Amino acid sequence: MEPDTNLTGGESLVRQLLHGKRYYKEVLGVESDVLWLPDTFGYCAALPQILAGFGVKYLVTQKIFWCCNDGERFPYHYFTWEGMDGTKVVSFLPTSYTYRTDPEEIGNVWKNRSQKEDLKAFLLPFGYGDGGGGPSRDHLEYIRRQQDLEGSPRMKMGSPKEFFHFMEEQGGPRHTYTGELYFSSHRGTYTSQAKIKKYNRACELALREMEWWSALAGKKGMVYDQSRADSLWKLLLFQQFHDILPGSSIARVYEEARKAFLRILEESQEMLGQALDFLLEDSGDAGTVTIFNSLSFPRKALITLPEEFRNGAVTEDGKRVYVQHMEEGYKALVELPAGNGMTLYAAAENAAGQEASDSQYRKACAAVRRTETGYEMENDRISARINALGQVDSYVLKSSGREMAAGPMNRLRLFKDIPRHFDAWDIDACYRDLELDGVRDVRMERKAEGLEAVLEVCGKIGKSSFTQTISLAAGQERLEFHTRIHWQELHRLLKTAFPVEVHAETARNEIQFGFVERPAHRSREYDKDRFEVCNHRYTALCDEAHGAAVLNDGKYGISMEGNSLELTLLRAPSSPQMRADNGIQEFTYAFYAWEGSFTESDVVRQGYELNVQPPVRSGRLPEMDTVSTDRKNIIVDTMKPAEDGSTDVVLRLYEAERAAVSAKILLPAWCRRAFLCDMMEQARQELSIEEGGITLMFHSFEIKTIRLR
Question: Model-level pTM?
Answer without folding.
Answer: 0.96
